[in-house]
Amino acid sequence: MSLLLVAQHRDMKPFRDAILEQDSxxxxxxxxxxxxxxxxxxxxxxxxxxxxxxxxxxxxxISSLGAGVDHLLADSSIPDSIRITRFVAPSxxxxxxxxxxxxxxxxxxxxxxxxxxxxQGEWKAVPFFSKNDLTAGIMGLGELGRDTAERLQMNGFNxxxxxxxxxxxxxxxxxxxxxxxxxxxATNILVCMLPLTNQTxxxxxxxxxxxxxxxxxxxxxxxGEHLVEEDLIYALDxxxxxxxxxxxxxxxxxxxxxxxxxxxxxxxxxxxxxxxxPKEVAxxxxxxxxxxxSGMELLYEVxxxxxx
Length: 308
Fold this sequence. Notes:
seven-stranded parallel sheet; Rossmann fold; alpha/beta; 12 strands; elongated; 31% helix; five-stranded parallel sheet
């Protein structure tokens, strides 16, 4: 039995080395160099080529390299019988909370305006917001969303959260799935941290932007497919959205010709809000690999119907 590491545009050797440090007896292969497809029973994937997994007749389980699994659930080559898991670790939450807090502070203190002034050689103080003026709204209160909401609240921001059901988080007002309009109308800084499902795809659209409390800002650290890109451009051009911070995109890397590159009101980062640590990944993968061999329940197994 072998464990296969699959990722486009990413060096998987550090992950292989970390797994072998955990257990030197494991057989770890890196796609596309696979000796015998019939031996592959466990795979780890991120941004895998389409319809790849149909090549492995004895594949039993696939783990995402991150917290999101939409890239696996959307892959028609993966039979329903194959178990899907995701990666959950404290470092992912810490990184994500740090990223969102930094983005919120930059919006709050209008840091981007000072970057622009520096390029132009301007010396001018710009009035900034009071923390009481703005409310951050977290869409999605899973592990990462909950930690981010707590981090913002601890730093003195007003924080709301929206999820399928209300959550108990100190200092955070929670809204349930059927209270989306109320949540949006009370939010200035909208932070998307939702899983990508049929219900959440393209949820960030013009209708939603029009409901936001002004001034309005958008931070998307979930998936590019949550956002209707044309609607964001219109919202920025008409002042419905003052600035957007985007870490995820429908097509990655973001094409050179994409209109987002030329928009001064958009801050772009290359999907780095939360990066997986090879050593942490290795611990979980080795554990789940052994559980699979023993016929045990897998850690962080995904409910296909829910999408997470």
